[in-house]
Amino acid sequence: MFRSASAFLPLALLLASSPAAAQIIGAAPAELAANPVITLQISEQLRTVPDQATLTISTEGRALKATDALADNRAKTETLLSAIRQAGIADKDIQTQGISLNADYDYVTTSGRGQRVFRGYVASNSVRIKTRDLDRLTGLLDKLTSAGATGINGPYFEIADPLPIRARARTQAMARGVAEATEYARNAGFSRVSLLTVQEGVSYRGTDIVVTGSRILSAGAPPPPPPPAPERDGAIAPGQIETGVTLTLQYRMER
Fold first, then answer.
1. Phi then psi for 152, rounded to 5 degrees?
2. Nearest Cα to Cα of residue 151 among 106, 202, 210, 204
3. Which of 219, 178, 202, 248 is nearest to 46 (CA)?
4. Pick from 4, 1, 2, 51: which is nearest to 239 by CA?
5. CA–CA separation, 201 vs 3, rounded Å?
6. Around Cβ 42, how many Cβ atoms within 10 Å?
7. Per residue in 11-22, is it b (16+ CB within 10 Å) or e — as a string?
8. Cα 235–chain centre separation
9. What is the per-residue pLDDT across 70-115, written as a single tens digit (0 to 9) for each?
């Protein structure tokens, strides 16, 4: 869990000259002098093991004619989609991302001069899938490559429903906010604070793993090891994802 906080005090305690204090509409300087305003920025981050992953898989067909390249790619894509469904991926978790058709050239040098040599056409199709069976992710990748996938990007780990985690982070951030604001108030000779405004931002961070063919590369430094989990069928480690909120809280100090 990651926490951070910053505080901004109006002049006299930095009384009334700060932008935060100026946002208290209708507050006279005398009122701010009697009850200064404090603005805190509280960040609360909770680390959680992801429960789903997305992958983008592509197929490729080549032929001298464009129509033949498209037909070749269509057949390969149908084979791949069949393998995806046989692996237990529901239709709602399968989405076509794009289809492309391009001329294919080789670049050769003849008598010191470079030139393009037409080789035919390349048709490709990419499909995005989502899986919640992370313990069998390596086996899924093996099935996809065996079914003809020529490119795999991912997996990108996610939390299916981050709202409960953000709610916990929000509760903790609010509790820290009032505690820290009260501490500032007491240090300044006041007894308590009252909440004036709340602004919220959310954050979501994780570590992605990029897969190309049989190579698996982790992007960035690995997170701290998670609690012991059931044995998985490969070396892919989902790690943990940080989910949380950043609150900007404004309080009035009171006697």
1. -135, 125
2. 210
3. 202
4. 51
5. 14
6. 26
7. eebeebebebbe
8. 22
9. 999 999 999 999 999 999 999 999 999 999 999 999 988 887 888 8
Q: Is the pTM of this model over 0.90?
A: no
**DSSP alpha helices (H): ranges in 42-102?**
66-86
Q: How far apart are CA 46 and CA 222, in angstroms?
A: 17
CB 40 within 8 Å of CB 249: yes
Per the structure block, which two tokens stand in for 255?
């006697």
Q: Which residue, chain included where needed, has tokens 């997305």?
A: 54
Q: Which of 84, 86, 79 is nearest to 94 (CA)?
A: 84
Amino acid at 194: S
Residue 211 burial by Cβ neighbours in a 10 Å radius (0-12, 13-18, 19+): buried
Q: Is 248 exposed, middle or buried (0-12, 13-18, 19+ CB in 10 A)?
A: middle
